[in-house]
Amino acid sequence: MQWQEVRSIYPDQYVLLEILDSHTKDNIQFVDDVALVRAIQDPNEATRVLLNCKNNNIVYHTGQEKITIELRNHPLYRSR
C-alpha cells in the first residue's frame, strides 16, 4: 500500500505500519511501500506503541507528506 493511500483513508491520525519496501540515500531511509497494521486514536498510546516497535514496524502520523527516517550510527562508548 502506498503512503498516500493510508493518508487518504486515515487523515490526521497516528497509524502503526510495517515497512515493506524502502531505499536509503545519505543516511535517510525513504519508505516506498507499507502495510497498515492499525490506526491509533490516542497520542499517548501511539507513543507507547512506538517505543515498543521492533523490526520493520513504525508509528507515523498521516499529517506527514512522506515517510522519511534518519538513520543514526551510535558510537560505542568506552570507560576507563
Strand and helix map with partners:
Elements: H1 3-9, E1 14-25, E2 28-40, H2 43-51, E3 57-61, E4 68-70
Antiparallel strand pairs: 1-2, 1-3, 2-4
How do you describe this structure in short?
With 80 residues, this protein is of the alpha+beta class.
Tell me the Rg in angstroms.
Answer: 14 Å
* Residue-averaged pLDDT: 92
Segments where pLDDT lies below 50 for 5+ residues?
A: none
Number of discrete helical segments: 2
> How many strand elements?
4
The strand order across the widest sheet is 3-1-2-4
Q: Mind summarizing the main beta sheet? A: 4 strands, antiparallel
Shape: globular
Instruction: Provide the succession of SSEs.
Output: HEEHEE
Structure description:
It is built from 2 helices and 4 strands; from the N terminus they run H-E-E-H-E-E. The chain is α+β, with helices and mostly antiparallel strands. The model has no long low-confidence stretch (mean pLDDT 92). It is globular. It has helices at 3-9, 43-51; strands spanning 14-25, 28-40, 57-61, 68-70. Strands 3-1-2-4 form a 4-stranded antiparallel β-sheet.
